[in-house]
Each structure stands twice: as structure tokens, then as C-alpha cells.
Amino acid sequence: MQVAQIIVDVPTRQTNNPYSYLIPESLEKQIQSGMRVQVPFGRRRVTGFVIGLSDKTSFDGKLKKISSLVDLSPVITPELLKLSEWMADKTFSFKISCLQTMLPGGMRTKFKKKLLATDQIRDTYPAIFHGQNEIDYDRQKFNNKTIAEILALRKSNQIKVHYELSSHAKPILSRAYKSKLNQQQIDHVLIDVQKRAVGQRRLLKMLYEQPSQTFLQSKLLHEGVGKQVLDTAVKQGWVTETQVRRIRNPFLQPVSKSYPLDLNEDQQTAVNRINNAIGKQTDTTFLLEGVTGSGKTEVYLQAMAHALSIGKTALMLVPEITLTPQIVGRIRSRFGDQVAMLHSAMSSGERYDEWQRINSGQAKVVVGVRSAIFAPLENIGLIIMDEEHDSSYKQSDTPRYQTRDVAKWRAAYNHCPVVLGSATPSLESRARAMKGVYQLIMLPHRFNNHALPHVSIVDMKDEMAHNRHILSKRLSNLITDRLEKHEQIILLLNRRGYSSFIMCRDCGYVPQCPNCDISLTMHKDTHTLNCHLCGHKEPIPTVCPKCHSKRIRHYGIGSQQLEEQVKDLFPTARVLRMDVDTTRKKGSHEAIINKFGAHKADILLGTQMIAKGLDFPEVTLVGVLNADSALQFPDFRSSERTFQLLTQVSGRSGRADKQGEVVIQTFNPDHYAIQLAKTQDYEKFYHTEMRIRHLGKYPPYYFTIKITGSSPSEKQTAYEMHQIAGFLRRYLTNKAIVLGPTPKTITRVNNRYFYQIIIKYRQEPKLKAALDDVLVKSQTKQQGGLLISIDNEPLDFM
Ligand SMILES: [Zn+2]
Ligand SMILES: [Zn+2]
Q1: Which CATH class for the 703-792 domain?
Q2: Where are the beta strands (DSSP E) in 280-417?
Q3: Any bridge partners for residue 47, and if so which?
Q4: Ligand 2 centroid distance, CA of 97 (Å)
Q5: Architecture, CATH, for domain 172-246
Q6: Keywords assigned by UniProt (predicted)?
Q7: Cα–Cα–Cα angle for 363, 368, 369, nearest 5°?
């Protein structure tokens, strides 16, 4: 008999060691590594991933048997199985969560539990069964008393529990018909069919013309062949009825074919160097640093085309919010149906279908966001990460992986190059390029030599003296000018909602979220105060709940209010707003972009999602209304973020043949991140910021670890975190810096108290083992509500 090693999905006793199960004889030939199975685990039945097979001989003791197969073919490739091991180790997480992360959302299975009762039990417990013999067991629906009753019934075997697999994504099946007759037979049949039986004659004619074709019912109905006709045709034995899988099409619009553009000298050099590495099958990492508008995308496209031309596949990643129809359209117009897309805005069904196309080898080019790094592509010839500095490449939940690291792992496995592209590379990547770990390729000129936009800085402290409006005089004059010239404008305000908070003018009361340590944001469209952390909502008070004064005012302008003010100031302008609130509905993001792109609006305003990746040739003015929003965060990366955001949004202005203009409004006009964004001087920013990082012992000079602990009790959280810090200090050398534990900037979120420990180090051979130990020990404390997470190279220290 054969034995399978299985990583089980057990949230409370997660383990990175596989369990052994016997393979039932009936499944012996079917089971392969990378498939999911159902196995008994204690009293339950759980899902698991088969990660290896072996002979029984090496096992003594009694093994349980696999109950059933979840997948009919492997869903995890051998490469991804290996990757999951590396990832679990690197991110201090469990193999099972790495494996689950690799599958598209719709394929993560859940089990529905069903309770089965005899007639007698059904009638004795009407409150549980409501007259049914079979009910869904949903923990949320029952109170504790009922759950206890159910458990007792189960223990005494008076009811049974059945497990049913519920996968969110299922293939869509469509009814279809195929001819059973050859052309000669059809000729024969036609003689007997009456002239007025138009539908039947039409169907037979179609079958005659395309005898081997399978016709979808929807197509036949469209052609005027009705349901009755089809029933007759089946009965007469003219056709067979079958079902075919229909592929959901996530691409809304067809695109026309495009061809490679002529490259300038820098672009050509870049393409040559990348193609050379593809051909030689070396896992070189390139940092492609190009100013905004330098034509990086064309370099990507031509290198991808080269990988395809030698029979390889290509993977291209873009940040969450820049996977715009514009970029996808460009890639599809070059590579057609070979392109598969993976994106969180797609339905789980669409993602499932696209994943199937990749897994079956139909798709050769994958373009997608962070999670697409796990696309089951084989024979990869090139991996591209556009906007490599973007924060969406780091997953914020477990497993907390950095996509860049996974990309490099896959490149090494596939012997192919990685291209990291950016106008403002992360300091980590640029520092590696300086040390020769990465190869640096520069695109210092804008494509077709378009000039960089002219940037001016407005000091809002001066402005406030004579103008209380959010738009400075300079910016509003320029908006008037552009509207007259019929050119387009982008306004960035990185704060959603109507106002940041409301306050009583008499007693100073500011409404806070009852679950979190944060003030509530006013949303005018829904007439509510919202918590942006936990989602709590409450009505906007008309009198102060504390002193009953009616003088409640709102402070700080959000994107909703900006829209209102802009419409007031420029009543004839057509204004679009893009933020989380206006893009919640599927397709709305795309609709706004298309509308603005077709110049059906004059002003596009919104939060940082408008800053990246968009390319509108008619935009000649960009206004940044509060350049300080990112600087205010108490974090070592806030200058880098500010510089990146300002540079990127400035790059939106003047991308075609018109000179662009940018206005940056700020209360810190002398800050180096703002001054250097004005001249788009990445070099100087890099050197300035590196000096500061060096002095503060921050990355990329130091490695960092963030340990976060939370529980419903602040006392418990603080106590446990002190224990952990003490434990680590004993383990580490005196060169390591252990900061904390300290309460997080926002200590309470959703009624849990958060503390953190930061470790900065250069070489600590014992650190990994110590942290693994912390993680394993923390499992036993979970019952008491304590959750510990370890973030390797966190994005921030907040
Ligand atoms: Zn008051
Ligand atoms: Zn809250």
C-alpha cells in the first residue's frame, strides 16, 4: 500500500510537518503530489495538500486512510510545492497558508457541514431541525445551548454529520448540440421536412454547412432555432445534446492588433541586455530605472515577445491599482488570446477560468497583480515587476511575502531574468544595483523627447493668510486656463470621505470609533460617520452628545468635499471623482478611466489611485492638494513614499506633445522630499535618503523584523510582548537592536490592543530559530485570544 504525506488545513494546530495517510487502493493510481484530498483529523474531516508519496514499509503504527479526492488533477505544480517550503520559512508562516495563498480565491475550498436526523429526532427538536431531516450546520445561527444539544446528540450517535465540499467557483456549463448526421443523411432528412417548418430547415442547413461543429444553444436561439425545434431534433436523432464549459471573459472590449514601436537608443540597449539574459537562461535581476514617460512598457513588451519567440512564457506584474484597462489593452493588442489576466477586481469565477487557462498551458503570458506571482506558468522565460517600489507588492496578511523575493526565487528555478521597473526605485533595490547585485539599466530620457513637466510649489502657510480655500490662487488660475483651452486636469487629494473629522466648537468633543482609537470620518453621501479601520458607521449628530451644543463643525477636506468645492468654483467643468467609495462596484474603475480618456470630463480628482499608471495625452495640469499627507506619518519610509507619489503623479502631466504643468501645495515647502520631487531628481533623493537611513540604522543598512501581538486585553498583550522581548534579548548578540514592546500608533483596532517589537540587525545567526520558537509557543496562547505575527522586512514601523 502507498502512503501520502499531507499538509492539513487545521487552523488551531497548524504544523509545517506533513501527516501520513494511507491511500485507498481505489485511489492509488490517481493521487499525485499537488492535489487536494479530504482526510479524517480527530473527529473532523479536513482538506489537505498531498506533498509527497512513498511506500508503506517505512511506517509502522496505524495510519488513517484518505477519505476522498478534492481535485482531479494537481492544482499546485512541483515548482510551487517547493516554493511553498521556502516561503513558509522566509515569512514565518505555515505551509498550509502558503499553499492556500497560491490558489485563486475561488478555488479555496470550504466544507459545508450538514446535520442528518431521523424522523423521530427531527420531531423531538423542532427548534434545531424546523421539520427538516437535513440542515446546514452554521455555527453562527445557533446559540450555545443549541450547540450543546447538537453535540450531545452527535456524541450519542443520534444524529449524523456529513461534510460537503463547497467551492465558490464552478465552471459555467452551457447546453450545446452536435450533428449526428452526415451531409448525405441531412439531404435525405430535408426531403421530409415541411417548407413551413422554418426552424427545422434552418437548423438542418446549419448542420449541413458545419457538420463537425458544436453549436451553443444560445447561438442557435439567436439564429432563430427555437427550443421546440431542438427538442424535436434530439427526438428525431438528428443531434446529440451535450454540455460544454464556457469560459468567462474578463476582457470587456476587443482590442485591435498592435505592432512593436521603434525604440530609441536607450530602450534598444535595455531590450538587448534583457533578451541576451533570456537567451542565455541566466537568472539576472535587472533594475530598469526610467523617468516617467520614458517608454518602459514598450521595453517590457519587446522582451516578452522575445521570450515567447523562443518557446517560453512570460509573467508581468503590476501594482494593485495600476492594472488599468490601458495597460492590459496594450498587452492584449500585442499578444492576443495568449494573455491571461489575474486581478482582484475580477469575479472569483473569472479568476478560476483564467487560472485554468494558465494551468492547462493555453495562456503563455500572464499579467496580474501581486498574487499572480503564483500563476502556475511553466517554462518561464521572463518575469517583469512594473513599479517595483509599490507597497501593494508586500502582502499585509499572513503569509507576509514580498513579491520581489518570490519573483527572484521563481527566476532562479526557471533560469530566467527578472526585470524590476520604476521611475523611483525602492532604496533597497537601488542599493543592490549600486553594489552590483542587480544590473542597473537607465532610461534617462522621455520617449520622443517630450519635456518633463514644469513643477511649482505653493507654500500653503502663506496662502492661508489671504485665501481660506483648498485650491491656491495659482492652481485655480491654471485650472481656469486649461478649461478655456479644453485641456484636462488631474487633482490629487489623498484623503477619502467628506471631512477628516467633526468637532464641537463649544466643548471640543470629537466623535471616536467605539471599537478603535481613531476619530470617525464624515461621509456626506451616506450621511454617516465611518471608521476607516473597522467599518463602524453611525449617524452624523446634529447636537453635541456631550454638551448639547448645536455648533458642530467639520474639519479637514476629503475627496467628496473637494468634488463639491470644485463643482462650485468651476460650474461648467465636468468633474469625475475616483476613490475607494466611487470604485466599489465592479467595472466602475474602468468606466471612470474610459470616460476621462474619451475626454468626456475635464477634471479627474481622487486619492492616490489616480496617481499611477494612467496615461492621458490631454492632461496638461496636475494639482497635488496636500503633499504633506504621507509626510505626517511617524515612519522612516514617509519621505520615500512622498517622493515616489509626487514624482509619479507629476508624470501624469504632459505626456503627449503638450508641455505639462504641476502644482504641489504643501505646508513643508522646504522638505527635501518635496524639493527633489520638484526637479524629479531621483539621484539626489537616493543619496540624501541613504544618509538618513544610515544614521538612523534603518533599511537598507539594517535588516528588520516586526513582531505584532494583539489580544482583547491591553494588560495581556503588554505582558506577553514583554516576555517575548525578554526572550529575544537573551538570544541575540549585543549588536542587534530590540525596540519595544511599544503600543502601536493606533493601539486599539476592533477592540483588540496592538503592541509591537522591532528588531534591527545585520547578522544574527540565532534569530531565525528564536523567532520560530516564538511562533510555535504563541500557538498555545491563541485560546486566550493572543495573536502573534512576525513580519520579515516590514513596510513600516507603525
Ligand atoms: Zn460639545
Ligand atoms: Zn473602528
Answers
A1: alpha beta
A2: 285-290, 313-317, 339-342, 365-368, 380-385
A3: 38
A4: 27
A5: Orthogonal Bundle (1.10)
A6: ATP-binding, DNA replication, DNA-binding, Helicase, Hydrolase, Isomerase, Metal-binding, Nucleotide-binding, Primosome, Zinc
A7: 155
79-93, 319-333, 358-372, 756-770: segment of lowest average pLDDT: 319-333
CA pair distance 716, 502, nearest whole angstrom: 33
Shortest-distance ligand to the CA of residue 516: 2
Q: Any idea where the domains of the chain sit in the sequence?
A: 110-166, 172-246, 265-449, 454-496+558-693, 703-792
Q: Which helix (H) or strand (E) holds 20?
A: strand 19-22
Rounded to an integer, what distance in angstroms lies between the CA atom of residue 262 and that of residue 720?
62
Name the residue type at position 49: F
| Predicted confidence (pLDDT) at residue 409 exceeds the cutoff of 80 | yes
Query: For residue 667, how far is its CA from the centre of ligand 1 (angstroms)?
Result: 30
Q: Is 507 annotated as a binding residue?
A: yes
Q: If you ran DSSP here, which 8-state letter would residue 621 be given?
A: E
- Annotated binding-site residue? 534: yes
348 C-alpha to ligand 2 centroid (Å)? 28
Greater pLDDT, 696 or 171? 696
pLDDT score at 59: 64
Q: Which residues surround ligand 1, an ion (CB under 5 A)?
A: 504, 506-507, 509, 544, 546-547, 549
- The CATH code that applies to domain 265-449 is 3.40.50.300
Model confidence pLDDT, tens digit, residues 610-631: 876 677 888 999 999 988 877 7
For domain 454-496+558-693, give the CATH number.
Answer: 3.40.50.300
The 3-state secondary structure of 661-692, one letter per residue: EEEEEECCCCCHHHHHHHCCCHHHHHHHHHHH
Record the cell numbers describing residue 502, joined without a space: 467633526
416 annotated ligand-binding residue? no
Q: Do residues 42 and 11 lie in contact, with contact meaning Cβ atoms separated by under 8 Å?
A: no
Residue in the structure block whose three cell numbers are 516578452? 304
Q: Reading across the β-sheet that carries 488-492, which strands appear in turn?
A: 454-459, 661-666, 619-624, 488-492, 603-606, 575-578
Give the closest ligand to the alpha carbon of residue 535: 2
- pLDDT the model gives residue 140: 65
Which ligand is closest in space to the CA of residue 511?
1
Beta-bridge mates of residue 738: 759
pLDDT of residue 581: 85
Domains 265-449 and 454-496+558-693 share a fold: yes
Q: Which amino acid belongs to residue 264?
A: N
pLDDT (0 to 100) of residue 524: 85
Amino acid at 649: V
**Residues making up the chain, counted from first to last:** 798
Backbone region of residue 587 per phi and psi (left: phi > 0; alpha: psi in -120 to 50; beta: other values): left
